[in-house]
Amino acid sequence: MLNHQAIAISSPTEFSPEAAAEREIFQRQSIQSMLVVPMTHSDKVVGSLGVEVVRGSKTWTQDDINLLKLVGELIAIGWARHKAEEALLAQDSQSKDTQTSTSGGDEAILTADDLAVMPAAWVAELHQAAIEVDSDRIVQLIEQIPDCHVALIEGLTHWVHNFCFDEIIELIESIN
C-alpha cells in the first residue's frame, strides 16, 4: 500500500498458501472479493480505502481501481483541508495579533498589481499551494515576501486564515 499500489482480490482462492490467515478472515466474514487503494495527498499515503463484496465475486477492472483511487484522493484532500483549518484556528486562538488588510473589516483586497512584485515562479508556487489547499506552504511563501509589501502580506494572510484559497486562485488566474 505504501508503494501507491492497489490491492485487488477477486476470489479467496487467489491467496497464496502463506496467506492462510488472510484467507480465513475472508471466509469468516463471507468476503468474496476486495479492492483496497491508497488514499494519497501531496504524494504521501495518508490512509487506505477499500470495498468488499460478500455476494458473488467481482473481477476488478482498471476503471474500478481508478474510481476508488479518485474517491480516496477526494477524501484525503478533504481530510488535509480539515487539518489545515484546525491548525489555522488553533494558531488564531493563540495569536492576538491578527494581520488583515480589510475593506470595512470583512475582506482582503488584493489586485494583480500587488502580485506583480513577486517573481513568476513564486506566483506559480503560490497558485499550486492554493489548489492543493496547502496552508503551511502558503504561509512559508508569505514569509518570503519583502516587508515593504505590507498589503500583499496582510491580504494573503487574511485569506489563508479565513480559508479563502479560492480567492488566491482567482487572483492568480486573473493575471494569466
Can you describe this structure?
This protein is of the alpha+beta class. The chain has two domains: 7-91, GAF domain (Beta-Lactamase); 98-175, no CATH class. It has seven helices and three strands; from the N terminus they run E-H-E-E-H-H-H-H-H-H. The protein has a three-stranded antiparallel β-sheet with strand order 1-2-3.
Which key terms come to mind for this protein?
alpha+beta, elongated, Beta-Lactamase, 3 strands
Largest sheet: 3 strands, antiparallel
What's the CATH class of the largest domain, please?
Alpha Beta
Taken together, the total number of domains comes to 2
User: What oligomerization state is this entry in?
Assistant: single chain
Strand order of the largest sheet: 1-2-3
* Gap between N and C termini: 39 Å
- CATH architecture of the largest domain, by name, is 2-Layer Sandwich
| CATH topology description of the largest domain | Beta-Lactamase
Give the CATH H-level superfamily of the largest domain: GAF domain
Q: Structural class, please?
A: alpha+beta
Helix content: 40-55%
Tell me the Rg in angstroms: 23 Å
Topology diagram in text:
Layout: E1 7-9, H1 20-28, E2 33-41, E3 44-53, H2 62-94, H3 112-115, H4 120-131, H5 135-143, H6 150-161, H7 165-175
Antiparallel strand pairs: 1-2, 2-3
Compact description:
This protein has 176 residues and is α+β, with helices and mostly antiparallel strands.
